[in-house]
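Explain this fold:

***
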Amino acid sequence: MKKTFAILYVFFNMLAFCGAAPFVDPNKTKITIAVSNINIGEITRAIGGKKVEVFIIVNSLLQPDFVELTPEIIREVEKSNLILSVENEKWINKLKIEAGTLGRIYKTLKTEGDWMIPHIHARAADEIKTILCTLDEENAQYYEENCLKYLYAADFAASAVKKELASAYGVKVIANSQIKSFLESYGFEIVGSFGKPKDLTKKRFEYLLKEGKKQKVKIVVDNLQISAATGGDLAKSLGAKHIALSGNILGKSYVNTLKENAARLKKALESK
C-alpha cells in the first residue's frame, strides 16, 4: 500500500510540475489524442504517424466562436489520453467539466499567430513534436524523424510559393481580417478589412468601397472558413478580382492547402 501511494504521489507531482506525465503503455497501443481543430489534428497525425490515433473536434470547414459539445465529442474525449487546443478556444473549459480531467492531460499550445504562415506552422509542428516526445519517450526518435520529414516538405513548398508570389509585394488588397496576416507575410498591402458577413454593415461597406477606389484595390480576399462570398459585392463594385483562401488545412495536407492558396493568389495577380 505504501509503495502504491508513493507511485501515485510521484505521478501527481509530475502533473503539477510540468502539466503532463509520460505516456505509459504496457500493451503498446496508440496514444489517443483529441484535438480542438483541423490544424492541430493534421500536424499531430503527420508527426505521430502510426503511434497515435487522432480525433478532430472541429473540421476544416468550420471556424466557430462556440462549439456544441455533443455526446459523441464527450465520448471521444473521455477515451483520449491527451487533449490539445489553442489559447483562444475558451470552450475547452466547458469540455474539461463535461469530459473530466482524471486520466487525461489537457495541453494548451503556445504557438501564436496564423498557422498557415510557414514559419509559424513550423513552430507549431515543433511544439507538438516536443509534447509527443515528452509523453512517449520510448518513441521520441520516431516523432523526431517524422517531424523533420514534415518540416522539410513544408519548407520546400513554402520556398516555391514565395517565388510564385514574388510579384505580390506592395499589391493593395481588401481582405477578411483573419486572412490578413497570411497575405501580409507575402508582401500584400492591406488597405482595409472585414469580418463576418453580419459585420460588413452598409457603413463599413461604403468606407471600404471609398478606400478601395482611392487606393486602386484590385483584389478582394475572403476567408473560406467564415464565408467565401462576403466580399463578392465589394469586389464587383470595385471592378476587382474576388477570391477565397483557406485559413485552415484542407484535404489533410498543409502543403497542398498552401499551394492551392498560392495558385488562387497568383491567378488573381496575373489578371489584375
